[in-house]
Amino acid sequence: MDPACPESPQGPEGVTLLVIAKEPLPGRVKTRLTPPFTPEEAAALAEAALVDTLHAVAATPARRRVLVLDGTPGAWLPDGFDVVRQCAGTLDERLAAAFAGCDGPALLVGMDTPQVTPELLTVDFADCDAYFGPAEDGGFWALGLAEPDPALLRGVPMSTHTTGAVQRARLVEAGLRVRDLPRLRDVDTAPDATAAAAAAPGGSFATELTRLRGPVATSLPSPAPSPLSGPVPVPAKAAAGQDAARATAGRGTAR
After folding, report:
1. Tens digits of per-residue pLDDT, 213-243?
2. Positive or negative: CA dihedral 59, 60, 65, 69
3. Distance of alpha carbon 174 from its chain centroid, rounded?
4. Quick one: average pLDDT of 41-47?
5. What are phi and psi of 66, to 5 degrees?
6. Whole-number Å distance between alpha carbons of 67 and 243
7. SS3 12
8. Is the pLDDT of residue 2 over 50?
9. Sign of the C-alpha dihedral computed for residues 19, 147, 150 and 192 taken in this order
10. Coil, strand or helix: which one is 145?
11. Mean pLDDT across the stretch 60-75?
12. How far is the C-alpha of 150 from the C-alpha of 138, rounded, in Å?
């Protein structure tokens, strides 16, 4: 047994919560947000999403909270987290290694769903073996295992539109009782960012997105005047030209 992950009690208080994340540095995170955002703005949004995720995890009952990080912790990391460096390798290997560090129930989430809440993260494995949180893009935003087995993740093709289906099928094929969590939308593109901010308007991510976008224009073009509302005013210069044209036309047609 890993001494850092001792045998845990039953219920949500016995679950280890894992957050797998990258240090939010320009050019290394949320590259699909560029454009319309600059690399620096994309990194600021990634940091805000990570802050919201970490705060939700911090407010969730748990035995242990672990940030599995690619990079160096910053001022954005709240108290109460152990930091573990991500191993090298493909994403499936890194996720498998995160689970391998614990010998009790664990729930893993990424940094891409700032709309996540403590209610969504409070899980109890009393009557199931796994939790699965599907993502709108075909992946998954959460994976929970009562008995973490790295083999359940190794070899699953990541970052495809079938990743979630393959991963969930792997759980079922292993004979696990799977409980599904609500479907959420990862933040990968600008429309994703808008949707996530709308789902959590009071969070750091929504605040940062509003700051970067600036105020949204709300003024509309003036409607065309109604034919019943009287003559349309004509600028003086245009009126003078029309008068001259009428006078000329009158001279040309006189007999």
Report:
1. 864 333 334 444 444 444 444 444 444 444 4
2. negative
3. 30
4. 98
5. -130, 130
6. 79
7. helix
8. no
9. negative
10. strand
11. 97
12. 21
Q: Which residues contact 232 (CB under 8 A, 6 or more apart)?
A: 225
Q: How confident is the model at residue 103 (pLDDT cuts 50, 70, 90)?
A: confident
**Torsion angle defined by CA atoms of residues 102, 103, 104 and 105, in that order, rounded to the nearest 10 degrees:** 50
Distances (CA, A) of 93 to 104, 131, 187: 19, 19, 22
CA-closest candidate to residue 143, choices 177, 106, 113: 106
**CA–CA dist 16, 49 (Å, integer):** 21
- Full-model pTM: 0.80
Which of 126, 133, 123 lies closest to 12, judged by CA? 123
Which residue carries 């899980």 as its tokens?
123
Cβ-Cβ contacts under 8 Å for 32 (sequence gap 6 or more): 188, 189
If you compute the radius of gyration of the chain from its CA atoms, what whole number of angstroms results? Answer: 28
Within 10 angstroms of residue 107's Cβ, the number of other Cβ atoms is 27
Calculate the alpha carbon distances from 50 to 74, 77, 119, 232, 251 in Å.
Answer: 11, 9, 18, 57, 79
Distance in angstroms (rounded) separating the CA atoms of residues 175 and 170: 9
For residue 125 the two structure tokens come to: 């494995």
pLDDT for the residue numbered 12: 87
* pLDDT score for 11: 85
The residue among 186, 174, 229, 223 whose CA lies nearest residue 46 is 186
Residue 223 or 126, more confident: 126
3-class SS at 64? Answer: strand
